[in-house]
């Protein structure tokens, strides 16, 4: 398959073709790029194996998968490998309701400098076509919890997180993988050796101790280079008045159309200079945070759990409440105005809480609420579009 990649500066041609066993050695630089990318994740938990140990194991894995009915695709630009995808094919799973066969995307690697140029998309398009040809309908993908870019990439293709792996050492003892990495660091061997091609140059604790997903150094830039005080929020700060807060609630399982509406709402609210508060997870929450980020605004996610494993990747800040559904009250209380986008029973509970607290609620393709006598419920305002919702929020905030 050959595709025109217009996202590159020189509009070169990207070729994607099946991976042959005699091409495995050409993947070594791409495997190293994948290791480097994983090791640099700020919230990564498990240390990465040194490349010198890792590549022979990966090479054997690729050869085994290709020899056992799996397949791969190689992406080339001007004849140079710039990415690859490796897929294994397994028999029917005894638990999950798969077909007679299901596939696992074992690895997807894109060369440094090529991410964002359509390589990963072209590779997965080729994988999808091959799976369709084989009649395989079920796919699973393993992603590091801290790899927010990858999670967002797969979610945009319709995948959702459903299963978690836990790492540890039996008996509750300190993790063996951390001990091995610490020993390498102390002995200046493996990735810490002076002549190692993948040498770790900075002396710091493992990423999960240095920074949590979605966090930033105090006073430092946000993910993606956004300043701690954004351009949208700065005017209010300069004028000496505090920013206004808008809580956005809505469907955790949203249709693509509803997600687009929420994303547009996020951009518009950021343009008003509002700080956007949400439940911090998937669906409408992730979409509105994405829109806020694209507009350079500030979003805060109030998570129901005690960890950030399921935090939306585009949040500016995420707070772990560890109070489950009770966090709905926190979300409703945090907004000067509340906007509901779609939603089911959880959203309805937040609408009720918001009204109990005296907050005005804007209903964007959400619940239709009436009084017992058939009149419209007080303090709720149905609208038909994200732009109409943002204009109403502006009016309700007095801006």
Describe the structure.
With 399 residues, the chain is an alpha/beta fold. It folds into two domains: 2-156, Gcn5-related N-acetyltransferase (GNAT) (Aminopeptidase, 3-Layer(aba) Sandwich), CATH 3.40.630; 223-397, Rossmann fold, CATH 3.40.50.450. The chain has helices at 28-39, 51-67, 119-134, 148-156, 176-187, 207-210, 234-238, 256-271, 284-294, 327-334, 345-356, 386-397, and strands at residues 2-4, 13-18, 71-77, 80-91, 101-110, 139-141, 245-250, 275-278, 299-303, 317-320, 337-341, 360-364, 380-383. The strands form two sheets. A seven-stranded parallel β-sheet has the order 10-9-8-7-11-12-13, sandwiched between helices. The protein is elongated.
β-strand number:
13
- Rounded mean pLDDT score: 83
Classification by helices and strands? alpha/beta
| Spatial extent as radius of gyration | 24 Å
Key descriptive features of the protein:
399 residues, alpha/beta, Aminopeptidase, Rossmann fold, seven-stranded parallel β-sheet, six-stranded mixed β-sheet, 12 helices, disordered N terminus
Note the topology.
Elements: E1 2-4, E2 13-18, H1 28-39, H2 51-67, E3 71-77, E4 80-91, E5 101-110, H3 119-134, E6 139-141, H4 148-156, H5 176-187, H6 207-210, H7 234-238, E7 245-250, H8 256-271, E8 275-278, H9 284-294, E9 299-303, E10 317-320, H10 327-334, E11 337-341, H11 345-356, E12 360-364, E13 380-383, H12 386-397
Parallel strand pairs: 5-6, 7-8, 7-11, 8-9, 9-10, 11-12, 12-13
Antiparallel strand pairs: 1-2, 2-3, 3-4, 4-5
């Amino acid at each position: 398959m050959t595709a025109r990649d217009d996202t590159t500066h020189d509009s070169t041609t990207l070729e994607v073709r099946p991976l042959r066993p005699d091409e495995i050695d050409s993947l070594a630089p791409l495997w190293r790029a994948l290791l480097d990318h994983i090791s640099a994740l700020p919230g990564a938990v498990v240390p990465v194996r040194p490349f010198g140990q890792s590549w022979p194991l990966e090479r054997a894995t690729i050869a085994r998968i290709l020899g056992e009915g799996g397949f791969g695709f190689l992406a080339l630009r001007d004849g140079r490998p710039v990415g690859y995808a490796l897929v294994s094919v397994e028999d029917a799973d005894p638990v999950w309701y798969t077909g007679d066969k299901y596939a696992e995307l074992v690895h997807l690697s894109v060369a440094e400098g090529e991410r964002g140029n359509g390589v990963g998309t072209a590779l997965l398009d080729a994988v999808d076509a091959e799976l369709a040809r084989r009649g395989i309908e079920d796919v699973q993908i393993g992603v590091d919890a801290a790899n927010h870019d990858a999670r967002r990439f797969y979610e945009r293709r319709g995948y959702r997180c459903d299963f978690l792996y836990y790492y540890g050492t039996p008996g509750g003892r300190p993790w063996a993988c951390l001990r091995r990495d610490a020993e390498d660091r102390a002995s200046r061997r493996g990735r810490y050796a002076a002549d190692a091609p993948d040498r770790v140059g900075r002396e710091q604790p493992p990423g999960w101790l240095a920074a949590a997903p979605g966090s930033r150094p105090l006073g430092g830039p946000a993910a993606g280079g956004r300043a701690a005080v954004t351009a949208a929020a700065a005017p209010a700060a300069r004028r000496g008045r505090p920013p206004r807060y808008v809580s956005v609630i809505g469907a955790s399982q949203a249709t693509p159309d509803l997600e687009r509406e929420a994303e547009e709402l996020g951009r518009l609210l950021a343009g008003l200079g509002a700080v956007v508060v949400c439940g911090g997870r998937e669906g409408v929450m992730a979409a509105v945070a994405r829109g806020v980020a694209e507009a350079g605004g500030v979003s805060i996610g109030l998570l129901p759990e005690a960890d950030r494993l399921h935090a939306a990747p585009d949040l500016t800040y995420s707070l772990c409440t560890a109070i489950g559904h009770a966090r709905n009250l926190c979300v409703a209380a945090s907004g000067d105005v509340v906007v509901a986008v779609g939603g089911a029973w959880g959203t309805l509970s937040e609408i009720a809480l918001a009204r109990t607290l005296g907050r005005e609620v804007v209903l964007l393709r959400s619940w239709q609420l009436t009084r017992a006598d058939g009149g419209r419920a007080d303090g709720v305002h149905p609208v038909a579009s994200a732009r109409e919702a943002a204009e109403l929020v502006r009016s309700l905030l007095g801006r």
